[in-house]
Amino acid sequence: ASGVLVAVAFAACGFAGPGRVSTVGEVDFDTPLPIPPLAESTVDADGTRVFSLEAQSGTTEFVPGAASETWGFDGAYLGPTVVAERGERVRVDVANALDVPTTVHWHGMHLPAEMDGGPHQMVEPGETWAPEWTVDQQAATLWYHPHPHGETEQHVARGLAGLFLVRDDAEAALPLPREYGVDDLPVIVQDAAFTDDGRLEGAAQGFAGRLGDELIVNGALGPYAEVRDELVRLRLLNASTARTYAFGWGDGRPIEFIATDGGLLEASVDLDRIVLSPGERAEVLVRMSPGERVTLRSVMTPEAAGLQPAIGGMNGATDEFDVLELRAADALDPAPALPERLVEMPAVATDIAETRMFRLDGFQINGAAMRMDRIDHASTVDTTERWIVENTSSMPHSFHVHDTQFRVASIDGAPPPPELAGWKDTILARPGTEYALVMRFEDYADPDTPYMYHCHLLWHEDQGMMGQFAVVEPGQRATMTEETSHDH
Ligand code: C2O
Ligand code: CU
Ligand code: CU
User: Fold this and answer.
1) Which fold has domain 2-30+175-333?
2) What's the CA-to-centroid distance between 251 and ligand 1, angstroms?
3) Is-contact 53 73, C-beta < 8 A?
């Protein structure tokens, strides 16, 4: 009986599940890694690159012969990878073929609030929503997923998610692997639970949300990827609804970390592990030797989640998952050496126009639950703000801000570690820890339509651990028009 209690406590604290603790080799790695197709596009007469995505329902066999009901974009599970160049005008025709309303949010994208795809831009069944904007940010691994208020966890867990890659000249000038699906591999990681006969089912509910005991990578269980290049780039996305990972290599070689949520770091950093909470991305490089096999694994410890070793009986709870096996060909294409400096990283801005406090506690932010008809604050366009995010709860959260990429100025007053020294839109907020984030809201002012900030543990978001802010012209106030204040 005490074993059961311990398992429940693990699930409740949010970083460990009651499920399998694997060892190397426990996952068979017998499925080729699926690569989401690249989204097709056409270019309009006015130069706009037009994509289309259709949210649809279907069935997926994660286990051969066992069909699960899933949702996806242009398919039964996940969605195509959208690629756009910095400076390009893009439009995405988002059609909803589900029988419930949904939205598509462009996570990490700088764009007008009306195009953001948050809970105010619902797409009704049978309707099409056609946001357009000019991509203007550095090359990065962004993603898209639904954001219907109170329903986001369910929509994402059923499979609605995809990557949105931004390319630019600075990244293109570097000798980095960038052949999509060949030496530049998307790795979309989700945890899930299955019935004994292999059908997807709702994972166990804890305080963090639902934690599954199996990993789905690009929609596959136990995948391997064959590579024929010495240097391989992985774009890791934690698309899980609640689980945080600490990715590393099974043989102990360092993780060569090159990019955060918002783009390249100034220089690559060698890490034992890279911790990614829900919503975060990382680009990493791995150097392969001919014929070798190397396993990407997650080993998440209580310390990595910021938990005191003895809180609530969770002492020693570490969960481990095999993620992906890379198999190198016997002859590999050589890789050119990388320059020491990848991109220019400006110093964190100090021209702070406003400092705001965000206290995370009780599935609320600043003691209030999200309301569709309340804009919590207005930020002035083209000014710099400092957001102090303090997690006063006893559990980890994941703090995400729409529209912008921020810099971490300090964590409990100290400079951030190198892996948090780049552009971020989502950050693991450890319990009892204070983060100073510096950000600018540029270009787009709209007093009527808010952007969101929220916990990216999606069940927390759905519970109302979210707030709304508008970006306004100097002196302007945020308003709520009838059109944007209806609750769904
Ligand atoms: Cu990835 Cu507001 O979300
Ligand atoms: Cu977002
Ligand atoms: Cu949370």
Assistant:
1) Immunoglobulin-like (2.60.40)
2) 34
3) yes
